[in-house]
Every structure is written in C-alpha cells, then in structure tokens.
Design a protein that fits this description.
There is one protein chain. This protein is α+β, with helices and mostly antiparallel strands and about 1000 residues long. Helices cover about 45% and strands about 20% of the residues. It has 4 domains: about 250 residues, Cytochrome Bc1 Complex, Chain A, domain 1 (2-Layer Sandwich); about 180 residues, Metalloenzyme, LuxS/M16 peptidase-like (Cytochrome Bc1 Complex, Chain A, domain 1, 2-Layer Sandwich), CATH 3.30.830; about 230 residues, Metalloenzyme, LuxS/M16 peptidase-like (Cytochrome Bc1 Complex, Chain A, domain 1); about 180 residues, Metalloenzyme, LuxS/M16 peptidase-like (Cytochrome Bc1 Complex, Chain A, domain 1, 2-Layer Sandwich), CATH 3.30.830.10. β23 and β24 form a beta hairpin. α1 packs across α15 and α31 crosses α34. The longest helix is centred in the last third of the chain and has 23 residues. The protein is globular. The N terminus is likely disordered. Its main location: mitochondrion. Its cofactor is Zn(2+). This is Presequence protease, mitochondrial.
C-alpha cells in the first residue's frame, strides 16, 4: 500500500464544489481547457480542495509530450521528467541508463554534471530513480534561478546525453585489472551499478520481494529485474544502451511534472523553446512500452527460492512464506482506494484480521517482506505471510490464511476500525509536510505511467464519499471484496524462501563462472585493450574537469540571516512549556522531552525496548486492542523514542532522553492528552504473550535493517571507538543493541525483562524531568488547556535545573572493528575526533567534509573503486566520519580515508570550490521546514536564534586557509577508529589490530 500511504499522507482544507473548466491559479493566471500556452494545449483543469491546489493537464502539440502542473501556494517547487521504460531482460538497462545519462551532455560536457550540481545549487532534493516500469528525474528547490539551472541540466542530460562508452563502463560494468596499473593482476568485473545490485542481492528481504513480483506478474516487464541481476548485467552492451535511449527517451514518451508557486507559463516557454519545439510526435513509442494487464490464472501457483543464512536470526527460524493474489487494475482508482483500505483492515494494528491470526500466535517473528498492498504496478496485488518461520510451519500458515479469509467474510469488520482508517485519512490530509510536492509525484506517477486519470486519483474526499455510499447501500460490501479478491481468486501465488548453507558459495561460483566465460572469449588483443581501457578510464577519472559550463548559484543568492521562530514560554504546573504558534491547518502537535540520565546502566540498555512497547501493551483499564482503537480514533499515533542529544556548546556533554510525540485534529486534543494520561498512570507490563509478539517484531526488524543501512551502522561503530557519547549510542541503537535484542528474543523467561520495563516506567513516567512543547495555531487555547489538564493529572514535580551531564573521555588507543556478515559487498567507516557545534573550528570542518566528499571521496571511492556511495560528515557529537556504501574494495577505501589529509595538502583549493562546498552546507541549513518542525532545534537541541545565526556567519566566513588548518589539525590525528561490515577479509587486518566479531557466534 505504498502509493495509498503517499497519496493519503497529504494535508489541507476540505472546500468543495469548485469549477473544473475554468479556474484562476494562485499565480493569478486564468487557465481554460483548450487554451494554447507556449506550444502546449490545456487538456484538463481541476481544483482539488482536499489539498488546496489546482491541477492542470497539458499536452505539447508538436511532440505529444504529457505535462502535469500542480499550482499550489508552496515555495518548495518541484520538477520531474519521467519516461516509461519497460525492460525485457534483467540486464539492468534502464537502471544503468539512468546513471549514464547523468555523466555529461552536449551542453554540459563535463563528467558527472549531476554530482557537480549538488555543490552548485540550493536544491533540497536531487535524484534519479528507476522503478520496474518507469525512470524519473526529480528535484526540489525554493530558488527560482536554481530551478531553471537544474531544469537545464536535467533536461539536457536526458535528451542530449553524451553516453560515452567510458561512462557506461564506469557506471554499468566493465572488465578491468584488479590493479589498473598492473596488467598481470587478475581481471575482474567492476562497475557502480554492478556492485550496487550485488549489494541488493545480499539482502534476503530484497531478494524475496523481487522474486515475489517476478512470480505473481510473470508474463510482462515485471517478470524481470529492472535494476539488474549481477549475473545478467555483464550481457548488456554499450550499443544496447544507446539504442534504448534513442528510442525511449523521446518527448513522445515523456511525462513532465511541475509543482509549486512558480509561474507555469515560464516553465512551458523554457521547455518549448529549449527542447521541444522541433520534436515530432511518435505515438508508436507509447504503444511499444505499454504494459498490458496480466492474464488471470485459472489455477494457483507455487514458487520456492533460496537465500543466505542470517547469523542475526535463530538458525531454525529463517524461512518465509507469503500468499498473494492479483487485485485491481491500477487505473480503477476508486476500487484501488477501497482495496487499500481493505488491506489496512486486514493487516494494520492489533485489531487487524491477519495480525490476530498470524502475528499473535508467535509462529514467526513478523510479517514477511512481501506483505501488503502493492499499487505501483499495472495490476495491483495483495500478499500476506510470515518470516522467521520453521519449514514445518508452512502448512499451518496456509491453513490459517484460509480460515482468516472465511472468518472475515462471515464476521465482517468492526465499524470502529473502518472509521479510524477514514479518520487517519482526514488527519493525514491536514498534516503539512515540507516535501508535499515530491510525495504527490511519487503517488501520481504509477497511475500516470499507465495512462490513468491522475486528476481523479487526487480527489480523496470524493473517493471517501463514494466508499461510504457503498457501505451504506451494501452492508456486506467489504466482505464481497474479500470473497472476490481473496477467497475465490485463482490468481494466487504461494511463495516460500529458506536458507541454503552454501548459498554464498554458489553465488561466488556463479560469479567466477561468468567471469571465466567472459575471459575465455578474449583474444590477446582484447586483453591488451582491457588494460589500455582501464588506464584510459583512470586517466579520465583523474582529469581536472572544466565545470565553467555548469550554471551555479552564488553565496550572494543566499539569505544573510536565520529566520526566527515565534515562541511563547510558559510554566504549567512548574513544568517548562514551549509554545510555537504556526499555521498548522487545525492540527495540534505535542512533544515532550523526559531526561533519563538518572537511570541505572542496566535499565538504560532497555530504554529503546521500553519505548518500542510502552504504548502498545495496553493499560490497567483497557487491553492493547481497545487502547489501539482509541489511539487510531483520535490521533495520528503515540510515538515514544529514545534519544541522546549533544550539547551545542560543550564536547562530551549530553542529554539522555525519552521523547514523546503525537498529533491530532484540534477538536481531538482532549482525547489525545487523555491517552497520554493513561500511559503515565495505568500502563501495564503484565501481558507476556503480547510482549513476546512485540519483541519478535523488533528483533526481526532490526536484523533486516543492516544490509540496507550498513553504512550507518559502520559509522556508529567507528565513532563509538573515539567518542564516549557515540559509544552510548552504539549500545542503544547499533550492532551491539541488535545483538542484545537477538539474545532477549531467544530468552524463555521474559518476566525479569518485563519487571525492568515496569521499573523504567515507574521512574520516568512523571513530570520530574519533563519539558513539553506545543505547535499550534495562534490563540488555540484548547490545546494549552488540554496540556494543562494532563500535567495537573500526572505525578511528579520539576526538579532538574540542568539536564546535561558530562561523559568521561575514552582512552586514546586506536580501535578497528570488523563485523563479519554474509554480504557480497562492504560498508566501511573511519572516525576521528572533532569539535562541538559552537567551536570556531566546527564550521570549517563541516565545509571541509563537504569538500572532501565531492572532490576526493566521490571520484576515488565511487568512480574508481566502484562503491555505490561515499562521503564525509561532521556529527553534532563532534565526530568526523568518512564512509562507503556497498563497497567492493574495502582495503582501497581505507587507504583513501587515510590519505585524505595528504590529498588536501597537495590540492590547490580554489575560491570557487570553497563556495561550492559552502552552498552544499546551506542546502541542509536552509531546507524547507514544515510548520510542525519549526522550533525543534530550540526545544530539543537548545539551539536558539543567536547560536544558529552565529553558525551561519561562521560558514559564510570560512576561508581556504581555514580548511588547510583544520585538515592538518584533525584529519592527521592518530587517535582514530575504523569499522568494517561485510564478509570475512583476511587482508584487511595487515598492519592494524582489528577486533573481529563473527555474528554467528553471538
């Protein structure tokens, strides 16, 4: 249900009955159907009151290009171009083409203009993405000059790319000597996408999802892997790539999207004059790429796949099973909307049908990866199943599936659960985010890509009304959907997955076999060419690029001051309260910070688990199902999280905290605070079976997170070796915590853990160390009264004049950690001590990290060594971090990390490069902030306007000599720590004392 969550997670008013034939946009431009504007003709105009926007559908008269403009009073403007790309093989062609188009174009011939624009723009989002059946290139920016700069670069990239063979070899795949300079070293398969997809195929969950899609929609483009199978990618040729681009990256196959408050006419004029006016339509392209409906099966099918063993999961519970059925055509937007609601009723929360029958008996550890409603493909489908299974439980799960469906048809659904889902839709429509335009694009593209009615798909209130009408006229309407799409649906797939002991060995054998086959076809001349091509590619990668062809903002384009945030400070029942008046669209946002530094160490290690379960265990007066129903009825959820907050003024000073977070419609504020009151006064930890269910979910989720976020775990592991605050973070959220959770999940007697969680609640669920914040529409006295009632009810009295505490410094011994996990690629990190936020060296270090990322690590670790990503950053805890992501060459990467200081000293840094690094910093500082988040820096991090303004001034004033100074002061430090997550590697240990952890032993 990805698209539903994106389409419904919108906001704003609910005004109805506006004309759809003629409208005045916020830009005061009257637009009519049939009107011609700069080579485009207006096809549809529709105000969408749910989101306070006007949607306009246009078509370029000459080329046939499709255009959707969303006119809305939002300064964060979005642009995207998409093409329907439907591959016929798993060679990764659309994915590699997406990468290669961004490596230089006719107007911007320098290498990698996309990455170089990251430092020449104020875009708060830039990317390119490949879906199974389309490729799109979006960006967001608030600066109008920046908007057209990026449009120019993006559109020249897709319509006029260089597509050099060397770029194809770098980004896609190539044969190259392990040591490029040594023709006697072994020849390997290299390439950014090749290594990226090896990383994807290291993730059992990704493997499972991909095969499920391939098997339930086998007859068209979904039957293959659009990202690329590493065993098939080396069959792709450069000429295939060029031919595919020439045919399908054509205006007739394009879908343009713009959003925000910039003038539409200017967009259309720019497009027409620069790219489209001389293009002729070719309707046959859309016919070629059109995805047909999957032919419905007459009988169900089965599939089984193998995966690697996961040392983070018990050996006897590593299998998965999912049962899926094909549902609606994506273009039937009303039915798709209703089926997404049905999916929520079946899956979401403790009152859902399948949650009760599959999760609560603790047969497996969690729902399987393929579980949910998928409405991204031409035919939508639903699947449900379990992971963490024993093979012997497969038949039991299938039996439960059938019984649950029959029970749903017989008993129907609780009207309170239906109302709660519709309430969540209303709340999410009002909930304002900073990236609404981008999320709307994500939700719209799948329907648009299959020529559906995209304007109709945005009208959520109309769909709710139609759904309610059906429920009123047909009380058993939902049961009829269950009968049609689940019980009596022959297009059903049962897929299972189990680990094989030699999975990784077989994968390596296949990789070696493929390489041998490639090498066997090479003549001596071919081998010499490989050596020469390797040298030439390295020469191109090392060459200084002339970037003067690229547009750029300057520091003069930036605002000089930090925007102040209105604040009202109060003491309510002696408790500090921060009130932030903001245009919240009738939504109240509540946050609270509770200091936990006074807890004992053994309790602190369980705080993350406490946070995960405290609002989901029920209370003394209500069980967890009843409580969950009330939470969904009145709020957007009650979230509790553990946090360690660094002092901006003192190194190794921190706040150990628990954060409460919730929001609701203004009319429900009393109910929201009553729910928090029940958590504080009545929470119970007595239901051992419920706790076991939540524990299994948490342990499973953590284990599954490593392969997708390995660089984050590696950075945390490395910084833990040199920073005592990060050492605490590692204990509470790193690999150490995952190992702790694995052990607890395998414990038979959970009562001692429950007792400790109860003790944590007794100590912190009061207002002794609490401070609160409200983000509300100005003069919303009801929210303030609701908070006052809550504070008057709960126990305790404020008694904490200083909520920071100092942590002792770690010893200075260098530390290196290797966590051995069965991945095909690696995640590397190196950490060095830095300074706190307000220190005079923080700003130049921050700029230096950006500079090193783009000018050194990107070309060295990504382009040359083939890692999917790499960078450097400076954390609020004062730790310098360098990292790589999905990296095939960890030894070379650590050498690059170690050589960063020498590189800076040998590199002549220009003023232009310095300013580019500053621009990249300001992208993060000046990114759009949603009303609900304004004030967070002050409330959580004690960063007032003066501190933020001083930081801004320091960034602006950084000089080239400052970068050289801090490089030699900090990057040459012999007190460092390194971390490597990946397969066993004997070579990495040479010359350094590595602490090796084999996670099969944990």
């Amino acid at each position: 249900m990805l698209r539903l969550s994106r389409v419904l997670n919108k906001h704003n008013a609910n005004i109805r009955s506006l004309s759809i034939l003629r409208t005045k946009t916020p830009n005061d431009t009257t637009v009519e159907v049939g009107q011609e504007i700069e080579g485009f003709v207006v096809k549809e105009v529709k105000p969408v009151a749910d989101f306070q926007l006007t949607a306009l559908r246009l078509e370029h008269q000459k080329s046939g290009a499709d255009y959707l403009h969303i006119d809305r009073n939002d300064s964060n403007n979005v642009f995207s171009i998409a093409f329907r790309t439907t591959p016929k093989q798993s060679n990764g062609l659309p994915h590699i083409l997406e990468h290669t188009t961004l490596c230089g174009s006719k107007k911007f011939p320098c290498r990698d203009p996309f990455f170089k624009m990251l430092n020449r723009s104020m875009a708060n989002f830039m990317n390119a993405m490949t879906a199974p059946d389309y490729t799109f290139y979006p960006f967001c920016t608030e600066n109008q000059s920046d908007y057209y700069n990026l449009m120019s670069v993006y559109l020249d990239a897709v319509f006029n790319p260089m597509l050099r063979e060397s770029d194809f070899r770098q980004e896609g795949w190539r044969l190259e000597h392990k040591d490029v300079d040594d023709k006697n070293s072994p020849i390997e398969i290299k390439g950014v996408v090749y290594n990226e997809m090896k990383g994807v195929y290291s993730d059992n969950q990704q493997i499972y999802n991909e095969h499920f899609l391939n098997n339930i929609l086998p007859s068209n483009t979904y039957g293959i892997n659009s990202g690329g199978d590493p065993n098939v990618i080396p069959s792709l040729t450069h000429s295939d790539l060029v031919a595919f681009h020439h045919r399908y990256y054509h205006p007739s196959n394009s879908r343009f999207y713009s959003y925000g408050n910039f003038n539409l006419e200017n967009h259309l004029k720019f497009l027409n004059d620069t790219f489209l006016k001389d293009c002729l339509a070719d309707p046959s392209i859309k016919d070629e790429t059109k995805v047909p409906n999957e032919k419905r099966w007459t009988t169900s099918k089965r599939a089984h796949i193998a995966c690697r063993e996961d040392p983070m999961v018990p050996k006897d519970k590593q299998s998965s099973l999912s049962i899926g059925t094909l549902w609606s055509d994506i273009n039937n937007t009303q039915e798709t909307f209703e089926l997404a609601i049905l999916s929520r009723l079946l899956l979401n929360g403790p009152n859902a049908k399948f949650y009760k029958t599959l999760i609560e008996p603790n047969i497996g550890t969690d729902f399987s990866a393929a579980t949910g409603f998928t409405d991204q493909t031409r035919d939508t489908f639903f699947a449900v199943g379990l992971q963490g299974l024993k093979v012997s439980d497969f038949e039991r799960v299938e039996s439960i599936y059938e019984d649950t469906i029959k029970s749903a048809i017989k008993e129907g659904f609780d009207n309170r659960d239906i109302d709660n889902i519709l309430h969540s839709v209303e709340l999410s429509m009002r909930h304002q985010t900073s990236n609404f335009g981008l999320q709307l694009l994500y939700g719209t593209l799948p329907v648009w890509n299959h020529d559906g009615n995209i304007l109709d798909s945005m009208c959520v209130s109309e769909k709710i009304d139609e759904f309610k009408k059906k429920l009123s006229n047909q009380p058993n309407y939902l049961q009829s959907l269950v009968d049609k799409y689940l019980l009596n649906n022959n297009h059903k797939l049962v897929m299972t997955m189990s680990p094989e002991n030699n999975f990784e060995e077989l994968r390596k054998e296949n990789e070696d076999k493929l390489l041998k086959e490639k090498l066997a076809l090479l003549s001596d001349v071919d081998k010499e060419n490989i050596y020469v091509q390797g040298l030439n590619l390295r020469k191109q990668q090392d060459a200084t690029q002339d970037v003067t062809c690229l547009p750029s903002l300057s520091l003069d384009d930036l605002k000089k001051t930090t925007d102040p945030v209105p604040l009202i400070r109060k003491n309510i029942n002696n408790t500090p309260v921060f009130i932030f008046p903001q245009p919240t669209n009738q939504v109240t946002y509540f946050r609270s910070l509770i200091n936990t530094s006074h807890l004992s160490h053994d309790l602190k290690t369980l705080i993350p688990l406490f946070c995960n379960v405290v609002t989901r265990m029920g209370t003394k007066s209500m069980d967890f199902r009843q409580f969950d129903q009330l939470v969904r009825k009145s709020t957007g959820g009650l979230q509790v999280s553990q946090s360690i907050i660094d002092s901006p003024k003192n190194l190794f000073d921190m706040k150990e905290s628990v954060i409460l977070n919730s929001h609701c419609l203004d009319k429900n504020v009393d109910e929201m605070f009553d729910l928090w009151k029940q958590i504080f006064t009545q929470v119970t930890f007595e239901d051992e079976n419920r706790f076991k269910t939540l524990l299994q979910e948490e342990a499973s989720s953590l284990a599954n997170s490593i392969s997708g976020s390995g660089h984050m775990y590696a950075m945390l592991c490395a910084t833990a070796g040199i920073n005592p605050i990060d050492a605490q973070r590692e204990t509470y959220g790193g690999l150490q915590y995952i190992s702790t959770m694995k052990k607890i999940a395998q414990t038979d007697d959970l009562l001692p853990i429950l007792k400790k969680l109860e003790e944590i609640g007794t100590i912190i669920l009061n207002k002794n160390t609490m401070k609160c914040s409200l983000t509300i529409v100005e003069n919303n006295s009801m929210a303030v009264k609701g908070l006052e009632g809550f504070l008057n009810t709960i126990a305790g009295n404020w008694e904490q004049p200083n909520d920071y505490n100092k942590i002792d410094k770690l010893d200075n011994n260098a530390k290196c950690f290797h966590h051995v996990l069965p991945f095909s690629v690696n995640y590397c990190a190196k950490a060095l001590p830095g300074v706190h936020y307000a220190h005079k060296h923080f700003a130049p270090l921050k700029v230096l990290c950006k500079y090193i990322s783009s000018k050194y690590l990107l070309p060295t670790v990504r382009e040359k060594n083939g890692a999917y990503g790499s960078g450097a950053s400076l954390s609020m805890s004062g730790s310098i971090q360098m990292f790589s992501y999905r990296d095939p060459k960890p030894i070379e990467t650590f050498e690059a990390f170690d050589g960063a200081c020498n590189w800076v000293n040998n590199k002549k840094i220009t003023i232009e490069e310095l300013n580019e690094a500053k621009l990249a910093i300001f992208q993060g500082i000046d990114h759009p902030v949603a009303p609900m988040s304004k004030g967070n820096a002050l409330f959580f991090n004690d960063m007032d306007h003066q501190i933020r303004q001083e930081h801004r001034n320091q960034i602006m004033n950084v000089k080239v000599e400052d970068l050289l100074k801090v490089a030699n002061l900090y990057f040459s430090n012999t007190n460092f720590s390194k971390a490597l997550i990946g397969p066993a590697n004997n070579d990495i240990r040479s010359g350094t004392n590595w602490n090796v952890t084999n996670h099969e032993d944990l």
